[in-house]
Amino acid sequence: MSASATTADIAGPPLHKGFVTVEGNRVHYIRQGSGPALVLLHASPCSAKVMGELQAVWGHEFTTFAFDLPGFGLSQAPVEGEITIERLADLIAGAMRAIDIRQAGLYGRHTGASVALELALRHPDLAAMILTDGLPIFSAPYTEERLAQYLPAITPEWHGGHLTWTFFRYREQHMFWPWDAGDIAHRADADLPDIDFLHRGTVELLEAAETYARTYRAAFVHRALPRIADVIVPAFWGNRPGDSQYKTIPLYPEGAPVRTMSRDSSAAMLEELDLLRLHRAVDGVPAHRSAFAAPNLAGEVYDYIDTRHGPVRALGLNLHHSNTPLLFLHDLPGSLDLHLGAIETLAMDHPVLAFDLAGNAESPSAAPGLDLWCDQIVDVLDTLGWTQVEIHAEGTAAALALHFARHHPARMSGMVLNSPPLLTSEERAAFMRHIPDIVPSEDGGYLLRLWHHQRDQQLWFPWFDHSHTARRTSTPNIDPAHLTRRAIALLKQPRNYGPIWRTVLACDLLSELASAAVPVTVTSDPDDIFAPTVRRQETGQLGAAKH
Questions:
Q1: Separation between Cα atoms, residue 423 and residue 487, nearest integer Å
Q2: Fewer Cβ close by (within 10 Å): the C or N end of the chain?
Q3: For the domain 291-424+506-542, what is the CATH code?
Q4: Which of 421, 440, 447, 441 is nearest to 503 (CA)?
Q5: Does domain 15-151+210-276 correspond to CATH entry 3.40.50.1820?
């Protein structure tokens, strides 16, 4: 199996995702499989997504829970105080208890191995056993000066160079150990991962840019080796050729249960499974339940909703309000994360729900499209018990709102389309020809293509016409931090970027508006990409569009 495979593209047992709150910090997990509980903890600087291949295979025998360590993925890092391995272990233990996992096998890689070790020591009642893959052991402590060199800040730059720096920095750690020692003495004895693996790691590092150093450093200052003798649950200390920690095997005390796995990842995965079978957790595992399925929803809910096409990440605000509920559809391609201000404003007077549509951001899909998204909308509304809603669609999501109205008019009281792309057929064809290819490539150039595509959208309309007459007159939002947030959201499923653009641009919105099945209001924000197309339309030119 490919090391780059993710939970989105590996066939396996049913998958669920969720959040719990521990000491005020949101902790994210991916759940897959059935059987005794097994907790998986990832290495730095990654997220639970890197455990997708293990979950798909081990999930046939275990209920696997892969957690994002606080500071990585979608798990929040504690704001105050130092992040230590011990603190991370306590947070994961709290997350296990919040899910009602009473006992589980513990599996961890690198930083995750250190956390699993401390979890077994500090919370032995939760641990049926522990298996590590490359427990971090260092012959000499890292100084603060050395840590600052190894864990530099990732600062957004106007030119987008921080994206490619991050790509090649992540690539480098698979070529040299440590990554910043580029000489033959430190050449890694490892295969270079494929481009999808490198891309995933790049996005995860960018996503954790503000917190990664605090969590990552914990593994370097933690003293693991003196602690292993105190473990009272069954333990196996795994290492494998081609890993930076393989050379540490001679440092383990005599008689320690060290296991050497195969270099080949598929073979090692099965060898590890054999060890995990030896000491299964004895307590049962609770059924998965989304916070959105609660009988009395709180005012704010942030969780996943299961649909017939997989889980979707959702945010609900002011859900107990009695006014007409609003369903917010994010720009396509995009993410709810890119519209939080608008969602919060709408929620001042209405219950509002927004979710990442399949194929976007944190809602995986290999083949998104209008019909699939409509299915998901129905499933989401049914989960909340909303029989009818008003839809607020941003930008290109107008195509989906109108499609949903055509097929499910009874579920809508009306819609608001904010800055829809009101384009002629010739214009739509031109836009389709200028969608950038952001499929990951070995040279990292796709990152700069996306960066300057996003930047040019703010500077010209259309973005591919760089003449002085096409300059936009509104103040461009080209703040590097803002563009980085957008890039991260769009890079989470880069192979869907072009297909989603083509799907929404294929819709003739001018004709759709003329035959809309429910009342429509068209608005625009002067800063939006397609605001110029709305401004050029006078009210009478919208034909039979209803207001």
A1: 25
A2: C
A3: 3.40.50.1820
A4: 421
A5: yes
